[in-house]
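QA checklist item 7 of 12: single-chain prediction sanity check.
[x] sequence parsed
[x] length recorded as 205
[x] structure emitted
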Amino acid sequence: MLTLYYHPGACSLAAHIALEWIGEPYAAREVEFGDKEYLKINPAGAVPALDDGEGWILTQDAAILRYLAKRHPQAGLAVAGSAREEAEADRWSFFITGDLHPAFFPLFLPNRYTRAREKEALDDVRAAAKALARRKFALVDAHLAGRRFFLSDRRSYLDAYVFPMERWAQTLLDDGLSEFPAVRAHHDMMAADSAVQAVLAAEGA
């Protein structure tokens, strides 16, 4: 049986949602960042990590999501089609991994981005991070305009992947998602999904 290691409300929420959508039995284990026992599972200390039950541990959210989609084709979460369609899915997956997600790091841990420890300096780091996150979400909003799902005409692992960042933006940006109507609509659609609600309740997030 698959086991997901997650931290409540973190990006591991995406893999948790995907597992719930798939509908097969799985275990979910909450971990704390820096936990010594978890570092034995994933020395990088990040979440998520996925144990396939046979001694293989997979890390990195995008890799886990793509693996789950391919392992369980019946769930319809993969983006299958032409080379162009698959490349488009990869493009957005890499964007979420390399651009959108990291934009929030200085909001969570501003002290890592400056040697200063004064409140004013840390607030400056947070303000810069908010501006960067807004620029990234402007790109997502333009992409989502006129769309229900992130890619194609049905849900995919990309819908799960972007959702944690939508939640962070709703909470951490000064005006939430108000300036990004297409992103807000996608967030609200995801938040209304019964499987998503079950996962959020399980995580207490």
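[x] summary fact logged: The beta strands are 2-6, 26-30, 49-51, 57-59.
[ ] second reviewer sign-off
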